């Protein structure tokens, strides 16, 4: 198994750099198959904001599949906003129109059992396809530390079903176990991470854009995520999904093709203290919590609506920290970056 690191300084060069590597995976597909291409379509942000997978990367993947006689579809269930709107703003709608590729909203859930979690409600549409190609984005994530190939498949859970999982899982470790379960169920045959431009700091939506100059490809999403951590000089055990993948023996031996490496500023939420046993209460006092900036907030109410713990009261611009489970969904969905992540002790 190989993890390919393809240096790519700008999106104009994607076709030239990525296509030859994809062609090495042609034997994974058979003409006439229906393939779901799953980008990261977190929310309606423009390509230059580096929140969603760049349309150029999606375009090259779709062209590659079409040239093999495949019927590709682009599908996701965004964290908020309609799929149509997110596709349009992200530039992927135009690509779909140009290539006559249908878009499919990943809704209509069915219950599927994972290794750890039972009755995971995943879009039934995922199972209508012969194969899935996972086209993720290289970004930090305030809850999971990084969002790469494995985390991207949480988009196969319909939007309305997502928030309940933050409550059910309770801890970041459990949430990572859910994400690994979903990745195993969806079982993408190929994963591609767009890191030409990505995000560092407090991602996945309101961090700092960073040019990493890389696209990463592998048939194994667990090895891919692990390899990216090492090349970013990030301890794989810090990234919850990678730690869980290692614990389950999913990061098999792999070889590397390509010599890319870089660095990344991690979110301020990365724990610096042990959070088990009697120290847990102390850690909770100094862990980062969300705080609404009254100056930046436009009172769109998205955070209040999406908060799984119902901890946000916008009538008072207030967050109930007794209810808050530190999932940082509010920070992720805020379209204005109006949620700061501050130490509770300073509030
Ligand atoms: S999502 Fe952001 S802008 Fe909208 S109400 Fe919440 S804090 Fe304010
Ligand atoms: S306030 Fe924000 S971090 Fe706290 S539970 Fe709600 S969405 Fe999660």
For the record, the CATH class of the largest domain is Alpha Beta
Number of individual domains? 2
> Into which percentage range does the β-strand content fall?
15-25%
Largest sheet: 10 strands, mixed
Instruction: Give the helix level as a range of percent.
Output: 25-40%
Bound chemical compounds = iron/sulfur cluster
Q: What sort of overall outline do the alpha carbons produce when their principal axes are compared?
A: globular
- Helix and strand element order: EHEHEHHEEEEEHHHEEEHHEHEHEEHE
From the alpha carbons, calculate the radius of gyration and give it in angstroms: 19 Å
Helix count? 12
Distance between the termini: 49 Å
The secondary-structure class comes to: alpha/beta
Stretches where pLDDT is under 50 for at least 5 consecutive residues are: none
Q: How confident overall, as mean pLDDT?
A: 94
The CATH architecture name of the largest domain reads 3-Layer(aba) Sandwich
């Amino acid at each position: 198994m190989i993890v390919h690191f393809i240096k790519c300084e700008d999106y104009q060069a994607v076709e030239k750099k990525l296509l030859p590597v994809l062609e090495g995976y042609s034997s994974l597909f058979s003409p006439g198959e229906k393939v779901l291409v799953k980008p990261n379509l977190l929310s309606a942000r423009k390509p230059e904001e580096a929140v969603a997978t760049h349309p150029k990367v999606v375009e090259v993947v779709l062209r590659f599949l079409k040239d093999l006689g495949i019927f590709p579809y682009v599908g996701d269930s965004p964290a908020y906003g309609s799929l149509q709107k997110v596709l349009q703003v992200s530039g992927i709608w135009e690509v779909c129109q140009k290539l006559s590729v249908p878009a499919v909203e990943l809704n209509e859930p069915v219950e599927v059992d994972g290794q750890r979690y039972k009755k995971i409600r995943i879009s039934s549409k995922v199972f209508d396809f012969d194969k899935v190609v996972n086209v993720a984005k290289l970004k930090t994530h305030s809850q999971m530390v990084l969002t790469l190939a494995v985390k991207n498949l949480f988009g196969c859970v319909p939007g309305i079903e997502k928030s309940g999982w933050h409550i059910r899982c309770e801890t970041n470790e459990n949430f990572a176990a859910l994400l690994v379960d979903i990745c195993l169920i969806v079982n993408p045959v190929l994963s591609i991470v767009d890191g030409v431009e990505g995000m560092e700091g407090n991602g996945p939506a309101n961090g700092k854009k960073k040019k990493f100059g890389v696209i990463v490809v592998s048939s194994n999403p667990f090895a891919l995520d692990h390899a990216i951590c090492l090349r970013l000089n990030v301890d794989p055990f810090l990234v919850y999904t990678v730690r869980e993948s290692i614990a389950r023996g999913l990061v098999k031996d792999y070889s590397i093709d390509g010599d890319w490496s870089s660095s990344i500023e991690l979110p301020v939420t990365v724990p610096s203290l042990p959070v088990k046993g009697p120290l847990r209460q102390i850690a909770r006092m100094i862990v980062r919590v969300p705080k609404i900036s009254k100056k930046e907030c436009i009172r769109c109410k998205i955070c209040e609506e999406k908060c799984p713990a119902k901890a946000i009261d916008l009538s008072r611009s207030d967050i109930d920290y007794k209810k808050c489970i530190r999932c940082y969904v509010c920070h992720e969905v805020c379209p204005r970056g109006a949620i700061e992540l501050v130490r509770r002790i300073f509030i």
